[in-house]
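BACKBONE GEOMETRY TOKENS
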Amino acid sequence: MKYTLLIGLILLNFSSHSQNAIIIGKTTTIHSEILDEDRMLEIHLPKNYEESDKTYPVLYLLDSFYNFSHAVGSVEYLFLNELIPKMIIVGIRNTRRNRDLTPDSPKLSKKHRERMGLTGGADKFIAFLDKELIPYVEQTYKAAPYKIIVGHSLGGLFNVYTFLKKPELFNAYLSISPSLWYPNELISQEFESVFTDHLEPNRTFYLTLANENSGNMRGNVLKLSEEFKNYINAHKEAGLRFRYDPMPEESHGSVGLPSIYNGLRFIFKPTQYEIPKTKEEVMNQGGPDGAIEKVITYFRQLSEKYGYEVTNEYALANLGYAFLRIEDLNEYSVNAFKANVDTNPNSHDAYSNLGKAYEKLGKLQKAKDSYEKALKMIKETEDPEWEFYLADLVNLEKKMKAKANN
């Protein structure tokens, strides 16, 4: 009996210590004087947020109850594949969705008015975002100035309305199958009559539409798309980036996930740097050192534009490997990888890549030093690929031993 009890206690203790929750965010509540109510937020912070001194772009997510988990997954997956930066996600839970996400509309039909109940609160909700929520987030978290808003259905309608009403509020708008069947005078106007002075520079707008054909929603989405294109053609100085992605294979419900995934890729496409692939292309950039400096300058300017540190790590690494593939430029790969280490000193990959360059150039001791540094750094993380870094070091040590014995 004693042994049975003892085994049970051991198993219970082991179970309690071996099971850890996988947490993608937390909830908090703020009070809005403008809306005269408490609002629940769902917050996702990037991995290693507490240890970092960096600031992060902020994604404001409407309809968080439906969209928070898949938005977090998309952001983390895209970052893992070096396509977007880490970011803070602020999910906004609804209280009166139809009220908050719709503009005032005298032309709304009696049928829709009866079904939707209280509507027309979009201006107050914009004021809540502008005067209360965004200042709260920027005071509470390590928030960079770069802000994205994501809205689906009525949330997409709200995004379109906000862009036309107060375009400077967000840097990028991601509007998913917006409910443009909803009548509103501002949305029905041409851009030239809305932006009579000028549009805030360097805005980005991404728009999708699912397999929806009823009513005039599709026609209004297509009209909006043409208005964007016409305005961009006439006002190139505005730096407005726009893309319309029809998704006829998706339903109104399923279109959300691929829209966020593809929309974020489009928004951050300027952070994907085009690397010279031939010796001629490298020499046209001022030679290897000129090409390295061009990468550093590009990302410094991009960071100033976006308001947060846009990493040059992947571009410098890709440039170093480009040099390794060009026989006459092999030796310059070390310069690119050293520049990568200098600007990204906390990256295990930067040291690993430098080690590979040294190894290829026959500088084995320097390669070993870099591999050891990379292995030590990655073991301090939870990255499961540390074994590859160990294998690089073990294989190099075998090569060094064989060379010493010859």
User: Anything to note?
Assistant: The two ends are 67 Å apart (CA to CA). The longest helix spans residues 287-306. The beta strands are 26-32, 37-44, 56-61, 88-92, 143-152, 172-176, 204-209, 241-246. DSSP finds 17 helices and eight strands in the chain.
